[in-house]
Amino acid sequence: MSKQELEVIGQDSACCPGLGAAPLDEEQAAELAKFFKALGDPVRLRLLSMIASRGGGSERGEVCVCELTPAFDLSQPTISHHLKLLRQAGLIDCERRGTWVYYWVLPGVLDRLAGFLAAPRPAGAGA
User: Fold this and answer.
1) How many other CB atoms are there within 10 angstroms of residue 33's CB atom?
2) What is the CA radius of gyration of the chain?
């Protein structure tokens, strides 16, 4: 049996070490703060959740704004404003197709947030 060490791909630990791994430097803190500031509003948190829940499989999950708006008791311009703030924070992106706009979560964003929030496991702890 080989005891070769395997490289874990898809986790950029250099960007944002886990919360318990090491203190953040100024640049890392500023980057993460923009994410958390955008997610500090319940409407934006729900919007991100609705968009991200479409992302199953290998294909990019997209949601039309026409599907998002009815879920809220808010006007369409207000929903568009919240989506704009999520885009400016670097959490989602969009594309206009005719009269509708489709949104998706940017690749790696959720993994980066999850990796930062993950608590380190003590040596020998089970999964």
Assistant:
1) 12
2) 18
